[in-house]
Amino acid sequence: VPKDTVKLFLTYNYIRQVTVTSFPLLEHLLLLEMGTQFVRPVTIGKGAFRNLPNLRLLDLGDNKILQLDLDAFVGLSSLTVLRLFHNNIGDSILEEHYFQDLRSLEEVDLSANVITKLHPHPSFYNLTALKS
């Protein structure tokens, strides 16, 4: 991937796993779409997006089964939009510290998952930019 890439569209592929070594340092990348993979589950490891420090939009929606490490989003302090819809995600997405580094987050889409109760982790309350 060229170092000056701003948008990267990886939807409709066969990506099974994303790890900290999946991406080189891409300081210009603002948008990454990795939704609707044709394999299940899609696993996002610890610090998987650490090399994308200026990422603004991350779309992981419609992967049907998404497995997230608790520290999957570490280092994404510039992220403003996170799409996690239709991924068979349960209550732990709110109850654990998944959102701890997402201080710029304005929008998170958790629709069409299997969330049964709202009991947010204390770090969720630090999302002061959250609008929707």
From TrEMBL:
<dbReference type="Pfam" id="PF13855">
    <property type="entry name" value="LRR_8"/>
</dbReference>
<keyword id="KW-0677">Repeat</keyword>
<dbReference type="InterPro" id="IPR032675">
    <property type="entry name" value="LRR_dom_sf"/>
</dbReference>
<keyword id="KW-0675">Receptor</keyword>
<dbReference type="InterPro" id="IPR001611">
    <property type="entry name" value="Leu-rich_rpt"/>
</dbReference>
<dbReference type="InterPro" id="IPR003591">
    <property type="entry name" value="Leu-rich_rpt_typical-subtyp"/>
</dbReference>
<protein>
    <submittedName>
        <fullName>Toll-like receptor 5</fullName>
    </submittedName>
</protein>
<keyword id="KW-0433">Leucine-rich repeat</keyword>
